[in-house]
Specification:
Elements: E1 2-4, E2 7-9, E3 15-16, E4 22-23, H1 27-30, H2 33-38, E5 41-43, E6 69-70, E7 80-85, E8 94-101, E9 103-104, H3 107-124, H4 127-136, H5 142-164, H6 168-176
Antiparallel strand pairs: 1-2, 1-5, 3-4, 6-9, 7-8
Helix pairs in contact: 3-5
């Protein structure tokens, strides 16, 4: 990206330098490197955005939480899920706390749920073999048994690995090493 006095310059738009001189829209594209440097324009590589699945606002220095978090109110007391109760407030109804505390799921819980979903979807394709075996005692083909065992093993491996990670970087490594044997 082109910068002038620390401000980003958009290509194809006019701009002003520090002296108030206006430059036409195509000037950045048509000028030489020397001309740009003469008025203080520099080039910086656009920053690489961190993966938003793991970092807030694409900022590598702001990782999302790995663990689940029990939510609390500003005064530090637990925050509970609420339901509507029509019998309170003189029969007018109101929202009331339940006994279930609000939990913000962390990356580990979210990715374990994703692993379970992937495994379930993969196994669903061959579930009919298992039903057929249970209902009519027709053997499940060996390749299907092998495939199902591999899916279950991979899901178990991933869940164990995800549970044991202590950093976002380690979680990313685990997820990059998934092998569902498609």
């Amino acid at each position: 990206m082109f910068l002038l006095n620390g401000n980003r310059l958009a290509e194809g738009t006019s701009f002003y330098d520090a002296n108030g001189t206006q430059y036409p829209p195509q000037w950045l594209n048509q000028s030489t490197e020397e001309q740009k440097l003469a008025i203080g324009i520099t080039w910086e590589v656009d920053p690489i955005r961190a993966d938003d699945r793991f970092y807030w606002d694409g900022n590598i220095n702001n990782p999302k939480a790995l663990a689940d978090k029990l939510e609390v109110k500003e005064d530090g007391t637990p925050l509970y899920k609420q339901v509507y109760d029509k019998t309170v407030n003189n029969g007018k109804g109101a929202m009331v706390d339940t006994t279930e505390q609000v939990v913000t799921k962390g990356l580990k819980s979210n990715f374990i749920a994703q692993v379970k979903q992937t495994a379930g979807s993969s196994l669903a394709q061959t579930d009919w073999y298992v039903v057929r075996k249970a209902e009519r005692d027709v053997a499940i083909p060996t390749n299907v048994v092998t495939k199902r065992a591999a899916i279950i093993a991979e899901a178990d491996r991933l869940e164990t690995a995800i549970t044991s990670v202590t950093t976002v970087e380690a979680l990313i490594e685990v997820l990059n090493a998934q092998n569902w044997g498609e």
